[in-house]
Write a structure and sequence with these properties.
Distance between the termini: 178 Å
Helix content: 55-70%
Number of strands: 8
Strand order of the largest sheet: 3-8-4-5-6-7
Strand content: 5-15%
Shape: rod-shaped
Largest sheet: 6 strands, antiparallel
Radius of gyration: 62 Å
Amino acid sequence: MSHTAHIPSHRKPRRSASKLALRAGVAGGVLGTIAVAGAAGPANAEPVTETIEMPTLGSLETGTGLASAVAASAEASQQEALDQNLQTQENLALQKAAKEAKTAKAEADRKAAAEKAEKARLKAEQDRKEAEERASRDRARTQLAAQSASDDSSTGSGSSDSGSSADSGETQTQAPSGSAAAIVAFARAQIGDSYVTGGTGPNSWDCSGLVQAAYRQAGIDLPRISYDQSSMGTSVSLSSLQPGDILYWGSRSGSYHVAIYVGGGKYVGAQNSSTGVVERSLDWDMPSGAVRLL
């Protein structure tokens, strides 16, 4: 190798003046701060022996576990709040259902009581009407009896003889025949049917509806209303009745009830809603008069 060859230098390169000045300034500032702090502290201050520990890996793991515990606690609190809210809603629903059930029961009881009261009212009204009808029939019978007594007194014994003769005639004509037999058979076949105002059969009747249907069996068309039916035919005495005669209650042109005489001192009629179609003796409810169409 030549002695003139370049040999690299192992000395550190010189720092530039600006860098040296910057470092000197920083160092000076730090030393000045330390000197001021030392002068400001007490003269007999003990040297600082406590050191500040930096967080380690173990402490970081402990912090992570604590965060998980806090999160779990928050989730549990939230779930408990949801459960309490659900329980509150269930309790409110149960209270509402119980209140509605109580209201429904009270309404059902009220309706039942109202229906019972209405039935009692209707029955009382029906009883009142029947009592009025019976009283009206009694008055009509009284008037008829008074009129008959007046007629008897004016005609003398001839009337009694005629009555006795009529009684004998009634006894001889108890068994119906021909058209009368058809009318009586039909009327008796309806015994037990119900009474319905305006009823014309086949299983429910009012008084004039039954009489009209019975006479239809003999080919006779009667009016629908009782006072029209009692206005037809020939008036006959109650002591001269024959099967098939129409009995009426009230005046002949203003009767309110009719029935059919079936012989043997009995009649068949649609009485009222309580009894329906029945067979009764004349003395059970004596008619006001009778008419004959056969």
